[in-house]
Amino acid sequence: MATYRQIYISFWSDTKVCDDFSPEDKYFYIYLLTNPHTNICGCYEISSSQMAQELGYNEESVKKLLRRMEQTHDVIRYNWQKKELLILNWHKYNWTKSPKMVSAVRAVAQYIKTDEYRVYILSTLERTINGQKEPAPQPAAAGTLSPAAPAQPAAITAHQKTDEEETMSRMVASYEQNIGPIKRAVFDAMRTWWLSKGVEPDMICAAMDEAAMQNAPNWTYAEGILRRCLSAGITTLAGFRADQKHFQSKRKGGTPAAPADQQEEPSLYAAFGMN
């Protein structure tokens, strides 16, 4: 654990801090940046009662400050159910591209309990490594998160969790590229298609690619493709591509496809860029 944290002197001249933060806001935010629970990810577990004890506040005051930091100032996210706090701009002042730093962030990220926070951190890390200035889309604010997700099985290993995180990060990146900022409901849906329905992540990404190619960059269209494929027993990228080739062959033979305006959702074959 680090024995100190850096506060840039520009903090005191930042327009947002100067114009919007009250003296109490500044004190509380600096506490969130420097308290002994912080880590290299800028996402850590801490309860409102712990904060109250360390700050000398009553717990109700701490809860009001947490809501103010999240809803008014938009500088943190706090999961009230899992007691987990995410500092949104932590990466700007605490991360570099060094392999040692990257490994440290990935190692700590696997223990983050809130899926959205973990994906945000891993996606932002990839963007930092690739030299992209903009971070990943921010997780939803408190109150818009769905109820707590079912607990992970106790027997899951760190290696399994890391594999899942990397796969989810890849699907999130595909969504952001083809459709836009991801929402919690879509994140949960992608995870369900993969882990519960057995659809390959690469096929989920292909469905989103196809939605974008069809000028329908939205999750509803992509999910329609997945439903049609699943009903036909197709759950792999190889099966998806094979079916695409089959349809292309039929089109070359003169078999017409159903008009798009007569379909509520993309048909299995029209979804392959042939309508």
Estimate the global geometry from the Cα principal axes.
Answer: elongated
Distance between the termini: 57 Å
Largest beta sheet: strand ordering = 1-3-2
Number of H- or I-type helical stretches: 12
What value does the average pLDDT take? 81
Tell me the series of helices and strands, N- to C-terminal: HHEHHEEHHHHHHHH
Radius of gyration: 22 Å
Q: How many beta-strand runs?
A: 3
Protein architecture, described:
The chain has 275 residues and is mainly α. It has helices at residues 15-20, 23-34, 48-55, 59-72, 90-94, 99-109, 115-129, 158-178, 184-196, 201-213, 219-231, 237-252; strands at residues 43-45, 76-79, 84-87. The longest helix has 21 residues, at 158-178. It is elongated and about 75 Å long.
